[in-house]
Amino acid sequence: MTDATLQFRVVPASDIPLAYAIEIAVYPEGEPATQETITMRQNAAPELMFGCYDTANNPAGTLVAYIVSTKAQGNRLTHASMYANNPAGNAVCIHSVCTAASHQRRGIATKTLRAYLAHVRQLGREEEERTGKKAAVDRVLLIAHRELMGLYAGVGFREVGLSDVVHGPDPWYEMEYLLEW
């Protein structure tokens, strides 16, 4: 695998089983989303499920990392926002950033996050062109455990504080990435 063999694109519904397999393999017990929840998120906001595909051994690419999100209204990622999508929302809420264990520690998560943020900005530009108005989305939100906050800070997220979301035994910290239009 090299940077030349990586492709970043929207994840189709047909790849949800692959995404789920990555999710259950990398998240600690009690934290992975169910396949049904991933499917709901992808169905609700297909443009916000984005993946990294390795084409080294398969011209069509093999999913090696993905991000799944929905939209919400407000400036905080809430428990309710994890299970709903508000198409008119101002916040993209990232629910999972997963990299296959076989591809971890190679910068894939960072590259996927950077490509994803560029994708979200492109969606905003397209919305502005289509509507003639400023894009509705003005931020990207996520929650992370303390040990992963450096990854997100490295691509431009800033810490907001301890999250109200309880999911699994460890605390979550909210982070945000503000979009400039």
Brief write-up:
The protein is an alpha+beta fold.
Describe this structure in words.
With 181 residues, the chain is an alpha+beta fold. The chain has one domain: Aminopeptidase (3-Layer(aba) Sandwich). It contains 4 helices and 7 strands; from the N terminus they run βααβββαβαββ. A 7-stranded mixed beta sheet has the order 1-2-3-4-5-7-6, sandwiched between helices. α1 (16-26) crosses α2. It is globular and about 45 Å long. The model has no long low-confidence stretch (mean pLDDT 94). Keywords: Acyltransferase, Transferase. This is N-acetyltransferase domain-containing protein. GO terms for molecular function: N-acetyltransferase activity. InterPro entries: Acyl_CoA_acyltransferase, GNAT_dom, SNAT-like.
Main sheet? 7 strands, mixed
Order of helices and strands: EHHEEEHEHEE
Q: What is the radius of gyration? A: 16 Å
Instruction: Give, in spatial order, the strands making up the sheet with the most strands.
Output: 1-2-3-4-5-7-6
User: Which percent band covers the strand fraction?
Assistant: 25-35%
- Known CATH architecture: 3-Layer(aba) Sandwich
Average of per-residue pLDDT values: 94
Structural class: alpha+beta
Q: CATH superfamily membership, which one?
A: Gcn5-related N-acetyltransferase (GNAT)
Helix percentage range: 25-40%
Task: Count the E strands.
Answer: 7
Look at the structure and give the CATH class: Alpha Beta
User: Span from first to last CA?
Assistant: 35 Å
Q: Could you say how many structural domains there are in total?
A: 1
Number of helices: 4
- CATH-defined fold name: Aminopeptidase
Contiguous uncertain segments of 5+ residues: none
Approximate shape: globular
